[in-house]
Amino acid sequence: MAKQRVLSGIQPSGKLTLGNYIGAMKNFVALQHEHDCFFMVVDLHAITVPQEPAALREQSEAVAALFVAAGLDPAQASIFMQSHVPAHAELGWLLTTMTYMGELERMTQFKDKSEGKDAVGAGLFVYPSLMAADILLYNSNLVPVGDDQKQHLELTRDLAGRFNYRYGETFVIPEPFIPKVGARIMSLDDGTKKMSKSSPNVGSFIALLDSPDEIRKKISRAKTDLGREIIYDVQNKPEVSNLMTIFAQCSGQTLEQVQTTYDGQGYGAFKKDLAEVVVQALEPLQNKYADIRSSGEIHHILREGAERASTVAEITLREVKEAMGFLPRAH
Ligand code: AQP
What we know:
The protein is mainly alpha-helical. It has 13 helices and five strands. Helices cover about 55% and strands about 5% of the residues. The protein has a three-stranded parallel β-sheet. Strands 4-5 form a two-stranded parallel sheet. Helix 1 links the parallel strand 1 and strand 2 (about 35-40). It binds adenosine-5'-tetraphosphate.
């Protein structure tokens, strides 16, 4: 049986967080051996909110290097920049013309990201169509994402079905792949909001490249509650439950084990141990990251990845344009 195709991406819209790692990258690494994988740095998505050019360039290279530092093997998975494969922008436009305003208006991520802002770019609104293009270009079977992306994936499935119905079988309908444990890591200052790399409060997230001291400081200041028990109860103790999830994910323990170990102990002792668990979990990744950045090998990895990705993407784009009735360019 042919290997299933997997595609996912991360935006270079800030410093990658522990949320991106636990919710996305750890799963990417686990999938690469059994599937035909494409992982990209989605820079075209990042510009749906304003980005400073020098920061965008640096963050893009940093995300790609973190992919490799986290364990992605360029020999197993294609690692590339979205903007290096022009077919993404082109199919994105074609699918935008087939997406209904009402569908986009229902997207909760758009509502969250546009809330309270005066000038909201149209790109932020139509971005789910570009995400659909990313996935459909590769005929991806599985899309590993955090549960916050589930709604966008549903739209991708609807668009693929709509296209196939109008123009004939062209796209594979992708399935979401949402891990059950640790799928969503919440902010350190509000256990009901997800941890986000673009949050203006740097204390709300742990960046993968934070120094040990920064990690200790952020965890010691993380919000808890007026109680003192280490109990997993998302409804009533969202912040403590989130810290327990981080502990479990970084140590390999179950939530029950964490709860038993800290039974009867206060938040202070738990937070102190949690900081050390996170520091230790990130140390190998941080060391590998430093090696990759200093070697400059990431540029070579990205060039090869873009070549492999383009080969697949261009075939799909040609089929789509033919199906839609575009006049082929003569050779
Ligand atoms: N807090 C999180 N917990 C679990 N998974 C998360 N992901 C993001 N935050 C968490 C997963 O990481 C992948 C890449 O996300 P993205 O960079 O494309 O965009 P995002 O989901 O909008 O991530 P951020 O960090 O919140 O970025 P900004 O602040 O720029 O919007 C996705 O698979 C996502 O589920």
